[in-house]
Design a protein that fits this description.
This protein is of the alpha/beta class. The chain has 23 helices and eight strands.
């Protein structure tokens, strides 16, 4: 009974209910990143990161609460100090570096962590009432949560609309005898052989010869319809151009959500589902191709795009690099986004995607020869230092060589499978970015003929089992790929569209389209 006054004093010093601001800070670390990326990230994509952040906050509060035998103000403040150090230090250092134009991140982080450590010791040893700083932290944390929610909600309110969908083609009933598996394999930024030879000094005609020897039609004069993956794939899957987005969104819009919506619900998927097809999608780390609600088979490698981006900016990243540098999850958080593990895994998933239970449409989006340039020509994985020493151009060339080997392997495997031979389309969505500032500092409206050639010339090859390519032609572009395929194999009567090539100035004017067809085609005239 002698200890009651001391216990009451301790209770008074730490009394103020359960900790609140540690959990608000955890939420704020995720919501702040979401507000910065609200034009690209879907709300559902942030849920894993929210779960991780809240789980970590609960763990910190429990450990410190048990250590200090209290869940009051002291534990709350100590927990928030730990969470600030773990969840905000790297992001804060990056922001300070950007704003000041050069304060080194590592010394700043070391100094900031030292300040937090001193604050932690001071609070742990404090004998005074901590309810006032506890209340102040509650207010600050609440502001940090409410602000990004308001920013994201305001943006959604201003730009909110039903998903933009082009009308579906007519439903069809196709006899089973003419339902082969269909593989649509996109090798991101794989330039045409003409571009590779003229601008990169690489003779890629052996790949074209291999494809033709295996029954493919190679469209040697093909170009992308748009200069970014999102626009290009949306146009291909909608089987139409995206002019209407300029009216819907405005030419100065930088909102990616209409594109994202069209990649998750598109005409090709609805057409094939109506024809009895099973849908398989094996995407990259990029969110819009990583998942699709239509897909019955949709394996995913590592973290989602938002979660990986969130974890890279938290202390878990350097800690994992220190304690488990070779683990799968450490690699998926690094600069190469786990490409060395992801690409071979994707290839195996593509080979296994059609299970024979129903005709299957397989969409594979492979980031080859897209950067990061982590592979050599034989598919060996390089360190960042090795990749940097090799240089960007040589890195791209060697990844083209490796991508060619991957394509040969896939074609051989798919054509040797038991059962009816499949339809295979191997296509790039865009070419590489030229070694200039076009699209970043300079507008694409100022691009030269050579810069447009590099960006728009693409690999485009088709395999139809019967070898009848009467509907194809050398300059066919992706917007017509499925129109011609559906006309040939499903009895559709879809009009062939003019093969046009469009650009837009930069990522701040995503729908300010202008036609560059005549400029680009000068190389082939």
């Amino acid at each position: 009974m002698q200890d009651r006054p001391a216990n009451q004093a301790r209770s008074a010093r730490n009394r103020d209910g359960w900790p609140l601001h540690p959990f608000l800070l955890a939420l704020a670390s995720v919501l702040g990143l979401y507000a910065l990326n609200v034009k690209e990230a879907a709300l559902v994509e942030i849920l894993p990161a929210l779960g991780m952040a809240l789980g970590f906050a609960i763990l910190v509060v429990l450990v410190l609460g048990l250590l200090f035998r209290s869940f009051g103000a002291r534990t709350a403040i100590l927990s928030s100090i730990v969470l600030i150090g773990c969840l905000f230090t790297i992001r804060l250092a990056f922001w300070v570096n950007q704003v000041t134009g050069g304060i080194p991140m590592v010394p700043f982080m070391a100094g900031f962590v030292l300040i937090l450590a001193v604050a932690f010791v001071a609070v742990a040893r404090a004998r005074r009432d901590l309810r006032l700083p506890h209340s102040i932290l509650n207010g600050i944390a609440l502001v940090l949560v409410v602000t990004p929610i308001w920013q994201a909600a305001s943006y959604k309110w201003e730009h909110g609309r039903p998903g933009l969908k082009a009308p579906a083609p007519e439903e069809v009933a196709v006899p089973a005898a003419v339902q082969p598996d269909i593989y649509y394999l996109v090798f991101d930024r794989y330039a045409s052989a003409a571009v590779m030879e003229r601008y990169f000094g690489l003779d890629d005609t052996p790949l074209e010869a291999f494809l033709e020897e295996h029954g493919f039609y190679v469209a040697r004069g093909s170009h992308a319809n748009y200069l970014k993956t999102g626009h290009s794939l949306a146009s291909t899957f909608q089987m139409d151009y995206l002019d209407f987005l300029a009216d819907e969104e405005g030419q100065r819009s930088s909102d990616w959500q209409p594109i994202v919506g069209m990649l998750r619900d598109h005409r090709v998927a609805r057409f094939l589902k109506s024809a009895g097809y099973r849908y398989a999608q094996i995407g990259a780390w990029w969110g819009p191709t990583q998942a699709n609600d239509y897909a019955e088979f949709n394996p995913r490698f590592g973290f989602g795009e938002f979660t990986a981006m969130y974890l890279r900016d938290r202390v878990v990243n350097p800690v994992m690099r220190l304690v488990a540098p070779d683990s799968l999850y450490t690699r998926t958080m690094q600069w190469d986004a786990g490409q060395c593990q992801r690409v071979p895994w994707q290839i195996e998933q593509i080979k296994q995607a059609a299970d024979g239970t129903a005709p299957t449409f397989v969409f594979g989006h492979v980031l080859l020869p897209h950067e990061p340039f982590v592979f050599d020509a034989d598919g060996n994985c390089l360190s960042r230092e090795q990749s940097d020493a090799r240089g960007r151009v040589q890195g791209y060339v060697e990844q083209v060589r490796y991508a060619g080997k991957v394509i040969r392997d896939l074609v051989t495997a798919l054509q040797q499978r038991e059962g009816p031979p499949p339809i295979i389309i191997i296509q790039a969505d865009e070419g590489p970015f030229p070694e200039t500032d076009v699209g970043h500092i300079r507008s694409w409206r100022e691009a030269t003929h050579d810069e447009l050639q590099i960006k728009m010339g693409i690999l485009n090859a088709y395999y139809f089992p019967d070898g009848d390519y009467d509907l194809l032609y050398p300059t066919i572009t992706p917007v017509n790929s499925f129109r011609m395929l559906f006309n040939k194999y499903f009895g559709s009567d879809l009009e062939r569209l003019p093969d046009r090539i469009y650009a837009f100035p930069d990522i701040f004017r995503l729908y300010d389209f202008f036609d560059v067809t005549d400029v680009v085609r000068q190389f082939h005239d």
